[in-house]
């Protein structure tokens, strides 16, 4: 489910953010080398908090909570975190900008400018496909086909569960 029962606190000061993170003993994820945005995500139902830092390019972040697994996509970062244990299940510093995070049944689809990743909803990586040109359009067809159109107008269809190309 797209996460709705959460609080997202933004801090203007890097110093204030890291002081609070240290006090609360929170883990922090994101690009710590190049950052202008400092946020703490709190999930009420799970009593879970995590910090994220990144350089904000204006792309909306997405969060999906599937049972106790939190999927977070923003800018050039993607994380899967077990909210009960705090264990980082998957981390990827993306090669292209994050576009969207979609849940279809037990699969989580991460769409970036040049790549698509698919995960099982328990946080395990399933498959990935890269493209030569940027993704301009994408949609899910009949809950089992991923349609992608790139900037060169080339169109692709993939079986979501296997990653197999469909002609």
Strand count, sense and barrel status of the largest sheet are: 4 strands, mixed
Strand content: over 45%
| Broad structural category | mainly beta
Tell me the CATH topology.
Thrombin, subunit H
Number of DSSP E strands: 15
What general form does the structure show?
globular
Q: Write out the strand line-up for the largest beta sheet, numbering strands in chain order.
A: 1-3-4-2
Describe the structure.
This protein has one helix spanning 14-24, and strands at 6-11, 28-30, 37-43, 48-54, 62-66, 69-74, 77-82, 88-93, 98-104, 107-112, 115-120, 124-130, 135-141, 145-150, 155-159. It has 167 residues and is mainly β. β10 (107-112) and β11 (115-120) form a beta hairpin. The longest helix has 11 residues, at 14-24. The radius of gyration is 16 Å and the shape is globular. The two termini are 31 Å apart.
List the helices and strands and how they pair.
Blueprint: E1 6-11, H1 14-24, E2 28-30, E3 37-43, E4 48-54, E5 62-66, E6 69-74, E7 77-82, E8 88-93, E9 98-104, E10 107-112, E11 115-120, E12 124-130, E13 135-141, E14 145-150, E15 155-159
Brief description of this entry?
With 167 residues, this protein is mostly beta strands.
Task: For this entry, give a set of tags.
Thrombin, subunit H; four-stranded antiparallel β-sheet; mainly beta; 7% helix; single chain; globular; 15 strands; 167 residues
């Amino acid at each position: 489910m797209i996460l709705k029962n959460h609080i997202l606190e933004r801090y203007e000061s890097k110093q204030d953010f890291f002081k609070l993170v240290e006090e609360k003993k929170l883990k922090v994820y994101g690009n710590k080398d190049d950052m202008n945005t400092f946020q703490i995500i709190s999930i009420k139902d799970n009593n879970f908090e995590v910090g994220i830092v990144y350089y904000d390019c204006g792309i909306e972040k997405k969060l999906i909570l599937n049972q106790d697994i939190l999927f977070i996509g923003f800018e050039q970062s993607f994380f899967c975190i077990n909210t009960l244990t705090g264990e980082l299940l998957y981390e990827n510093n993306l090669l292209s900008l994050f576009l969207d995070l979609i849940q279809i049944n037990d699969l989580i689809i991460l769409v970036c400018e040049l790549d698509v990743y698919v995960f099982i909803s328990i946080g395990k990586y399933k498959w990935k496909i890269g493209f030569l040109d940027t993704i301009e359009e994408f949609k899910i067809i009949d809950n089992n086909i991923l349609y992608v159109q790139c900037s060169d107008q080339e169109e692709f269809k993939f079986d979501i569960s296997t990653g197999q190309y469909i002609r």
